[in-house]
Amino acid sequence: MAAVCRTRAVITLHSVPGSITERSPRLDRDRLVRELVPPPRFDAERFGTYRPGPEHPSQAAAVARLEEYADGLGPRPGRRWGFGRAKATEAKGIYLDGGFGVGKTHLLASLWHAAEGTKAFGTFVEYTNLVGALGFQPTVDALSTHQLVCIDEFELDDPGDTVLMATLLGRLTEAGVSLAATSNTLPDALGEGRFAAEDFLREIQALSSRFEVLTIDGPDYRHTDALGSPAPLSEEEVVAATAADSALLDHFVDVTRHLSTVHPSRYRAMLDGVTAVGWTHVRPVTDQAVALRLVVLVDRLYDAKIPVFASGTPLHEIFSPEMLAGGYRKKYYRAISRLTSLAAHGNR
After folding, report:
1. Alpha-carbon torsion (261, 250, 271, 164), positive or negative
2. Which one of 7, 53, 93, 258 has the minimum C-beta count within 10 Å?
3. DSSP state of 24
């Protein structure tokens, strides 16, 4: 009888998912640079897999212009054999401006795949984290030999980070690196004189003449299937959906507390091998620092296509109304769009 009980105990332990609190990966600087590639979600995406909507001609126009831009990314100018490299010609950049879910990241990843030579792809936050981990000049040195650097979701809500990135991009363009970036325009700002594009060009004053702005209109494709934000699951349903060794199951408060102990640059490594995430007792986030760390985690979950199962507060209400009206609202709306998409498709 005792032997049977021990066997059952082993089976039970084997089926218990892990906890995010058990994951604190060490900083790997080489990995940070090496992983500046499109996330798994966009591994197979190309210009040919993008489906422009006929009711939004700006989408097809953007595809055509980006294909032309990719064709123009030839060998880096000014190279000399034996005596180093001559001064490079300053490069011209492309800036994709549009609302959530119109396919900007799809197109940016397609450009990366189409370009030849050494190239990098990362979010605005990933590049600022790279500078934080490596230092400014080592980051310049690491990226200045690239043919193309793609920056997804260029953010304008933190003046310090915006100036940092503007300085970094200035150094890269002076080295002859071609740039491509996307915006994070709010849906209700799409008709307001291209507000995000104007902000972008104003904030990077020295770079404004080097960027061509492409406007992409359209609805958020992530929610065109009317799934929207799914109803919260019961705690039992969350536990059942994450009953595997490769899943993580945590109380939501434990998740937010643990994020403060891990540098955001390591969130991607923290999710290595994870196939599902379960959060119980989700509640609205009211602290700005907690909310911003959660945004980075949601971005990494979305990149890796990891479904989210949650009980408690509906995920579209995870950020308080005050936060959604504040300076970081663009980050929060993007996180809601991505998080509810992960939950809806996971439940389905």
Report:
1. negative
2. 7
3. -
Q: Please report whether residue 3 resides in a domain.
A: no
Considering all CA atoms of the chain, what is the largest pairwise distance in Å, rounded to the nearest integer? 79
| 343 DSSP β-pair partners | none
pLDDT digits (tens, 9 = 90+) for 78-88: 443 333 343 44
**pTM of this prediction?**
0.73
Q: How far apart are CA 271 and CA 129, in angstroms?
A: 17
The confidence score (pLDDT) of residue 92 equals: 73
Residue 21 lies in a domain: no
Task: From 204, 219, 234, give the residue that closes a domain.
Answer: 219
> In angstroms, rounded to a whole number, what is the distance separating the alpha carbons of residues 273 and 211?
38
Note whether 242 and 309 are same-domain residues.
yes
Distances (CA, A) of 43 to 8, 31, 108, 109, 303: 41, 18, 12, 8, 10
Tokens representing residue 202 in the block: 């104003």
pLDDT digits (tens, 9 = 90+) for 100-119: 778 899 999 999 999 999 99
H/E stretch holding 196 = helix 195-203
